[in-house]
Amino acid sequence: MSSYILDASHSSIGFSVRHLMISKVHGRFASVRANLELGDAPKVSAEIDMNSVDTREEKRDGHLKSADFFDVENFPTMRFVSTGVEGATSGEFTLHGDLTLRGVTKSIALKVENLGAAKDPWGNEKIAFEARGTINRMDFGVKWNAAIEAGGVVVSEKVELVLDLQFVKQG
After folding, report:
1. Overall pTM surpassing 0.90 (yes/no)
2. Which of 50, 96, 107, 121 could bridge to 72 as Cys pair (CB 3.0-4.6 Å)?
3. How far apart, in whole angstroms, are the C-alpha atoms of residue 82 and residue 95?
4. Which domain holds residue 153?
């Protein structure tokens, strides 16, 4: 089994959500820790500091941190722990896991592509993955919304997850 940790400076944990039913707001989390164990049964675990949300709009970020959305005062972290893999991890595969947000844990599936491995100029072994998935924020108790005049709502229930991950081998 080989152990890896997230190379945060070469990774991005992002999301997008429909706004006013016509456009998407994109955001990311700047503070993430993750571990990867590669072997017969690959495993990954991650912890995200919800205070690190960044949508490039300070007022919106403040609203996301409030009890209307992430409630970071009571739930400062989001966690993911893998529970299984479908397919060969050398190519495209599905990663199953438990996502905990606002104290609610739900099983999710991420479509993952192994982008390959390489050594950097300093001899560090790196491996990279791209992952995509969708969750319903209502499943996690993130229910705030408002109706808009033209019909529809301010924020969609569907949240798209976009992860570009690079890990560095340990020991």
Report:
1. yes
2. 50
3. 7
4. 2-169
* Closest-CA residue to 115 (of 3, 2, 11): 11
In 3D space, the residue among 10, 3, 1, 12 whose CA is nearest the CA of residue 131 turns out to be 12
C-alpha distances in Å from residue 97, one per residue of 85, 127, 131? 9, 20, 13
CB atoms within 10 A of CB 37: 14
Comparing C-alpha atoms, which of 50, 103, 53, 99 is closest to residue 76?
A: 50
| Count, residues in the chain | 171
Residue 62, domain CATH: 2.40.128.110
User: Going by C-beta distance under 8 Å and a sequence separation of 6 or more, which residues neighbour residue 129?
Assistant: 112, 113, 114, 115, 163, 164, 165, 167
- The residue type of 30 is A
Task: Give the separation between CA 22 and CA 20, rounded to whole angstroms.
Answer: 5
For the stretch 38-92, pLDDT in tens is 987 789 999 999 999 999 999 999 999 999 999 999 999 999 999 999 998 888 9
| C-alpha to C-alpha distance for 170 and 148, rounded to whole angstroms | 51
What pLDDT, on the 0 to 100 scale, is given for residue 153?
Answer: 59
Does residue 110 or residue 157 have the better pLDDT?
110
